[in-house]
Amino acid sequence: MPQKPKQKKIKFKINDKKITDYMFDFTRTIVFVFAIISVAFTFVIRDANVVGNSMLDTLHSDDKILITNFMYEPKCGDIVAINAENQIEKRIIKRVIAVEGQTLVVDYSKNAVYVDGIKIDEPYVSSLTREPSNPLQIPYVIPEGYIFVMGDNRMISLDSRDKSIGLIPVDDVIGKAQFIVFPFDRFKYLY
Predict the structure, then answer these.
(1) Tag placement on the chain: N or C end, fewer CB within 10 Å?
(2) CATH placement of domain 45-189
(3) CA 110, CA 104: separation in Å to the nearest integer?
(4) Where on the phi/psi map is residue 175: left (φ > 0), alpha (ψ -120 to 50), or beta?
(5) What is the 3-state secondary structure (H, E, C) of the chain?
(6) CA-to-CA distance for 96 and 124, rounded, in angstroms?
(7) How many CB atoms are located within 10 Å of the residue 128 CB?
(8) Alpha-carbon dihedral sign for residues 26, 32, 38, 44
(9) Which of 4, 85, 88, 59 is nearest to 189 (CA)?
(10) Is the dihedral of CA 135, 137, 141, 143 positive or negative?
(11) 131-177: per-residue pLDDT in tens?
(12) Which residues on neighbouring strands pair with residue 86, listed in sequence order?
């Protein structure tokens, strides 16, 4: 019978320098990723909690949303987070109806909103548009540096129609709501 060739035993030698280099590279990568995420969440992406029902049926109370604010300029139809601390000492989330230079008419008798003379299609509105008890004299043309916002639940929303909120300075816009991220069963992109 032929003899089996002897198998050589392979010895692994652990190189302490390679392990140290690997651990250093791994740690440096983790720190770098953490720094990028921190910068993104500080300057580009923010989160907010929805409080109240003024944006029903689009947003529900206690929804958690992600907001982007990098190089953002408000546009009609966008859902925005607003720093309304000067007006009512809190942050609010509303929909942009008109921006600077646009004409605006809110016709309560017809339950209609006209921007630049055209009735806007608002499939997201969940209730009749009521006139607030403390109505703002809405300017026909939105002035430079301001936007006009309304909630989707027009029956209860405290928004630009009311003197306590009024027109919103563009500088008070925190950013555009992009996603509902919690609760998970409501996860969706907000267009």
Answers:
(1) N
(2) 2.10.109.10
(3) 15
(4) left
(5) CCCCCCCCCCCCCCCHHHHHHHHHHHHHHHHHHHHHHHHHHHHCEEEEECCCCCCCCCCCCCCEEEEECCCCCCCCCCEEEEECHHHHCCEEEEEEEEECCCEEEEECCCCEEEECCEECCCCCCCCCCCCCCCECCCCCECCCCEEEEECCCCCCCCCCCECCCCCEEHHHEEEEEEEEEECHHHCEECC
(6) 12
(7) 9
(8) negative
(9) 59
(10) negative
(11) 998 999 999 999 999 999 999 999 999 999 999 999 999 999 999 99
(12) none
pTM: 0.78
Query: Measured at the alpha carbon of residue 16, what is the angle toward residues 12 and 19, in degrees to the nearest 5?
Result: 95
**Location of structure tokens 């109806």:** 97
Contact (CB, 8 A) for 134 and 163: yes
